Amino acid sequence: MLRWRLLLGTTIIAGLVLLCWLDYQAAIPGVWLMPVAVVLTVLATGEVLQLVRAAGLQPPGWLVYAGNLLQIGVAWLASWAGNRSVGIPPPDGASWLLLAFTMMVLALFAVEIRRYEAPGGTIANLAGGVLATAYTGLLMGLLVQFRVACGIGALAALVIVVKSGDIGAYTVGRLVGRHKLAPRLSPGKTIEGAFGALAAGCLAAWATFRWILPAVMPEGSSRLPWGAWLAFGLVVATAGILGDLGESLLKRDVQRKDSSAWLPGFGGVLDIMDSILFAAPVAYGYWVVCALGK
């Protein structure tokens, strides 16, 4: 299993890097990655809906699917229209994404008003719908906006650091892990594995900042201090660990081991994307405050 996870994890990273390179060469930012984002959003939305329904909640699935696709579409179009070059987009880009999310919340209220029959269950259904909308739609939309706003190098750095941290956590945890990190949520995760994730994330950040960023965005990387890779690796890898635990929280609450059986050895789309989704706003904030200096 360890060999399979390492092989598959490395393959995923290589495939994403290839897509990022193709997207970097394209005239329209995100044109290669948007189809991938659409597929991942649809699959992840289905898995979140399965989890909330297993908890007894019944949000309107069709609306959640539509709203999540709307959010990533708005994030791409608004960010691209407002920012044709690498840099931080004007507030309108983030405002459109927030507006789409807010409209989804209002639409969820409208559906519950329409189908209300008796007391009990309405608030829970609203909470489940908002969770599915925020967890997959809003965070995926922010990830799409991050690519267009901060450039392909920033997105590649995020993915490489997070997935390297996942591989480091699993490898170190399997080999030398002894002390449980969160035994009630995820018995297989260890404190040693968490340190392995941080070390692997920092190493991946160094390699990314050393070779990848200067190749694809020299105007941004030339302003980065030497310790920028260390800070980026630490904060992003830490967010990735929290994202993994956050998804484990949802799964354990409904007594599920994986979000689905879509990918043998890894589970579902959420089992792969959970750490990236949590790390996306952290990486975005880092890039705005520290990296691009705006």
Task: Give an overview in words.
By secondary structure, this protein is an all-alpha fold. It has two domains: 172 residues, no CATH class; 119 residues, no CATH class. It has ten helices and two strands. A hairpin with a 3-residue loop joins strand 1 and strand 2. Helix 6 crosses helix 9.
Q: What is the count of helical runs?
A: 10
Q: Give the SSE order as H and E letters.
A: HHHHHHEEHHHH
Give the amount of beta strand, in percent: under 5%
Count up the domains. 2
The level of helicity is over 70%
Structural classification: mainly alpha
Number of strands: 2
Report how far apart the termini are. 44 Å
Mean pLDDT: 86
What's the alpha carbon Rg, rounded to whole Å? 19 Å
Instruction: Give the strand order of the largest sheet, numbering strands 1, 2, ... along the chain.
Output: 1-2
Low-confidence spans: 85-91
What summary fits the major beta sheet?
2 strands, antiparallel
Dominant shape: globular
Keywords:
two-stranded antiparallel sheet, 294 residues, 2 domains, 10 helices, mainly alpha
Care to give the gist of this entry?
77% of the residues lie in helices and 3% in strands.
What is this structure's SSE topology?
Blueprint: H1 2-25, H2 33-54, H3 61-82, H4 91-115, H5 122-150, H6 152-176, E1 180-182, E2 186-190, H7 191-216, H8 218-221, H9 228-253, H10 269-291
Helix pairs in contact: 1-6, 2-3, 2-5, 3-4, 3-5, 4-5, 5-6, 5-10, 6-7, 6-9, 6-10, 7-9, 9-10
